[in-house]
Amino acid sequence: MSIADLDRDYVFHPFTVLATHQQSGPPISIVEAHGSTVVDADGRRYLDAMAGLWCVNIGYSHPEMADALHRQASKLPYFHAFSSMGTEAPARLAERLIQMAPVPMAKVFFGNSGSDANDTQAKLVWYYNNLLGRPEKKKIISRHRGYHGVTVLSGGLTGLANLHDGFDLPLPMIRHVRPPHRLWEREPGATDEEFARTLAQELDDLIVAEGPDTVAAFIAEPVMAAGGVIVPPETYFPEIQKVLDKYDVLLIADEVVCGFGRLGVEFGSTAVGARPDLMTVAKGITSAYVPLSACLVGSKVWDVIVEGSSRYGAFGHGYTYSAHPLAAAAAMTNLDIIERDGLVQRAGDLGTLLHSELRSAFADHPNVAEIRGTGLVAAVEFVKDPASRTPFDAVGQFSAAVTRASLENGVVTRALPAADTVSFSPPFTTTEDEIRAMVDGVRRAAESVAVKA
Ligand code: PLP
Question: Which domains does the chain have, with CATH numbers?
């Protein structure tokens, strides 16, 4: 059987129309990848404009990563971290993360994915408030279009209907507010500052309506990725922060996409002026060579949690693979490569090129509503009629057609949910010519499916 046949018959795919996949199987089967190029089973080559899922930041099959994994697997492939057990690579990585963090942080809790890390954050917030004698202070506010994962808790934090439908989510303690999405949420004529103030006031109103004694935390990506690549107004996080401080509500920064250079600065919180109490990182921490996530915990929360030992005994949370030595070794080498090769700066410089290429390539496309992004993350949003901002009748079909046609042009991109948005988030090691080729492939694809209003 071919790989495609095996896949079609046996693999239960995430985020896939199951009935269609059962008929058609995978559009391509990737067997190899180097740098920004992936190769399918027929030997066809594609430029990966998404670095996998916003994560292979140093590019595919980096020889130093292969060496580092081999070295670690040959010495200590695994040992657990339960009951105070220590291993070297996670200890060194935790120290490094604390030193790198954009705001002072106290401790690092390791997990395996962005989803489980955000679940951990919620549990930390609840544990913290229980210890403080505030058992009612448990609600977590997120934003529509925010993406925080898919587990029972984090799937509800994610503000996208297709992650809730059929799963009885969100859980009852989760609330959502509007995102800082200028295209759809900003009043016509309002300035960025007015828009930010309006959204902060809405958060304030929600907290008051719910009762400040019941609201524990606000979770936000510095720049929203999967929900549409939404860059907030400059004053948005400072305004939000004032509201959170006023009601003693913790800020969880979800840096799963933004962390480790995607925006051309080390962390998204720095880029947007956020001051998180808790930070979630994953993806770019290992450039996805091995699954790893981490919760960075500030002293405000840690100092309370550590006192919980006398009340609850051992902290009753953790994974078999928490502080996995192989994942930590991958992270250390990945961070070494990023630092040594100046890849954060490079992501910023390539981003400047990507945005200018996108602006010129898509300026006169009849369906482009907005071209946006920052650093090495960008999106083009399409609508039926940009002048009247009328979406397509069947939202998502146009962008799906663009990604299919892009694939035929040798470029892998992604159609984001809840709109007709096509995204770009290539590896930091992509060459300038490859950036131009990615944009060109998607532009030709979008031309071929253009719809005149
Ligand atoms: N948070 C953000 C900002 C993400 O983009 C993602 C995944 O795309 C997650 C959390 C969930 O991470 P994972 O898919 O590793 O569970």
Answer: 3-61+342-448 (3.90.1150.10), 76-340 (3.40.640.10)
